[in-house]
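Worked Example 4.2. Consider the chain below.
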Amino acid sequence: MAGRVAGKVALVTGGASGIGRGVVEKLAEEGAFVVVTDIQDALGEEVAAGVRKAGGKAEYRSHDVTDEDAWIDVIGGVKARHGRLDILVNNAGIGIGGPILEMKLSDWRRQTAINLDGVFLGVKHGIPLMRESGDGGSIVNISSVAGLKGSPSLAGYCATKGGVRLFTKAVALECANAKDGIRVNSVHPGLIETPIWLTVGDAINPGANAPPDLDAMSTLAVPLGVKGFPADIANGVLWLSSDEARYVTGLELVIDGGMMLR
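Applying the procedure from the previous section yields the following structure tokens:
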């Protein structure tokens, strides 16, 4: 099925790599105009150019999701150019691992600012434009299986992703009570091959000085026995963004090859 989000305007944060890039490419493939934001400017421009080369529609905006003024500017730009916002994917995030007793307060705050404050700011400034559009909308917040269960040496990361999970449910109820047609859901990836493993790998395998072997980890931890890819998450985001999920809000969509079954 093609054109599942045709005519819609989407904004994807952290869209220059990993899951964000997969989401950008999938939404564009299915007909959306995608505003790609990130702080990795060269990669972000490359992603947007790649979408256009493939026949899709995309533009890139440099964007620090922890900066409220930056959010006001980005959303203002979307309004000025497109007059509407239909899909918001709050994907930007980082992973900082290590024992909690060794974690620096500065790292705790940086991770919280990006992973949780960034989602709050996206919702705060995205909803008004969605309401102005008059056709409702879909907000998808990218959490993690680490937002559903604890993991040693990832306490700070778990805290942020667990916060995204419950924040999503609360905002879903606010929008439902407002009868504004905006649906708010969270997605919880498992072992997905993305660059984030370059930063959290040492927490899982201290002293290895190399990214973890996701294939070996998946054999042990994932019932399906294989790792996931950004496209697997993008497919879930596409569904939540489309009218096929018109009756879905407050959902936590777990895409993890069965990890949470154990």
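DSSP finds eight helices and seven strands in the chain. The chain has a mean pLDDT of 95. Compare this with Example 4.1 before moving on.
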